[in-house]
Every structure is written in C-alpha cells, then in structure tokens.
Amino acid sequence: MKRVSSRRVHIEEDHSRGEPGAIEHRGGVLEALLARSPTVRRFEVVSSRVDAAHDGITIAHVTDLHVGKGERTTRRVRKAVEILNRLKPDLVCLTGDYVRYSHRALPLLAEALRGFCCPVFATRGNHDHWLDAEGVVAALHLAGIDVLTNEHRTIDLRGSPFHVIGIDDRLTRHDDPELAFSRVPDGGTRLVLSHIAEVADEIGSRGGALVLSGHTHGGQVNVPGITSRIFRNMGRHYMSGFYRVGGQVLYVNKGLGHSVPIRIAAPTEVAVFVLRAAPPVNAIAV
User: Could you say which architecture CATH assigns to the domain 2-277?
Assistant: First the structure.
C-alpha cells in the first residue's frame, strides 16, 4: 500500500487506459471525534465516468444495519445518521440487510433512520427478503427513504443529471440488472447500488462510475489468509474495500451491524466518497 502524505492510495488511476482510481483521506480532528463508533472513512473516486459538473459531489454509504428486536441494536444506526448530518453529503446510499430475524425490528428501523438532511436511496439485501421484504420497504418509506427495486432515479445535481441505479438482492434471486438499467437516460453520472458486489462483474459496460455494495461485513471474523480463502471458495471475489471492475470503481463496505454478535479485524464503518471527474483517455487538452 503506497502512502502519500496524509493519503493512502488504494487504486491508482491509470491515465493511459482510462482506468479509475480511489484515494483514502485520513480524517482530521473532527472526523476522529465523530468516528469513535462507527469509523468514518473518507475517499476520493477519480473516473472519466464522472460528469464534470459532478466533480466534488459527496456520497455517503451505509449498509448491513442488522437492526434486531431491541433499541440497543439501533445505536450505531442513530450515530451514523448523526455523523452524516454533520458531514452534509449530497446524498446517502443504503445497500441492504436492514434487519435481522424479528419483525419487531421494523418500527425500530423506521425510527432510527428518520432525520437525514439529504436525499437517501436504498436497495434490499438477503435478510430483508428472508424476513419481510415489503415490510422493510414500508419501514424505509416511513423514514423518507426511496427504495430502488431494479430501477433508477435521476436527480439534478449542479445542473446535470445524476442517475442512481438500484439492483435488488442477488443472493435471493431478486436481482435484474437489465431491468434496472433499461430506462436510464444518457449523459450525467451513474451510481450503482447492489447488496451483492459480484453484480459488478456483469455491468461494467453500462457506464457506472461507482458501485456500492455490502453483505460481507468485511469477513466479520477476519483472520489473515484464512477468511479471504473461505470467501473465494464460496464464490465471493470481493470481501471489502476498493476494486476496479470493468471500468468501474467498486467499494464493498464492512457495514454497521452483524448477523452474529462478534467482529474481529472488521470494524464497522460509514464510507464517504468525493467524486472527481477525469478526462476521457482520448481527450485532448487545449
């Protein structure tokens, strides 16, 4: 891992091939204070697929909340809402597994996610379908969150279209990338939300700049050399962090919650991305 002053370079941009890049920024005093639980990670994503008008747009990503039947399971969620309202992103994205195993989680979920001060878009995960997919959607709607089920939303950001494409959960076979992209207009910037990261392997030609995923919990119990091997044997190619896939930047977030009450070397996180526009590889500077 290369270090440059106060940055850690995860994926270096390849100018000659038009490949995107991503850089982590270590937080200052404010971020350190806010990030005690969960950790706030801040990045820049550089891509020729980012519209020039969207250079500097900030996107926050939260996933795998796993709210249970008690108030204590919402503490990190409430903290994440508080943190993000202070950091003031342009939009917030959620990528599934909002609940665990109890219907008593649904009103708690709606209450915990109320109060975001910017637009919020969401897709569902496997736990949501296993428990009550429509109940989860209703809870998210009560919190003012727009749920994307193999569809997109286009919003105006800085005078240019910004497309948020939501692909439903692949593990439970509710995903349909073809439908999700079917009516996305040309132009602007494309952001893709998918609970399962491997969807990125199929959609690189569809122009997405950034793909946000979760599901893995960063391995949850992350034993070096062992956990990653188990993931590969399970057919999971992306465990956590950044990957470059088909011209896209893919980020797999470790999430806020857990399916079993233990985490080792896989801390909970909130991710914040600043988009940076890069010229196309064949562009001529004048």
Answer: 4-Layer Sandwich (3.60)
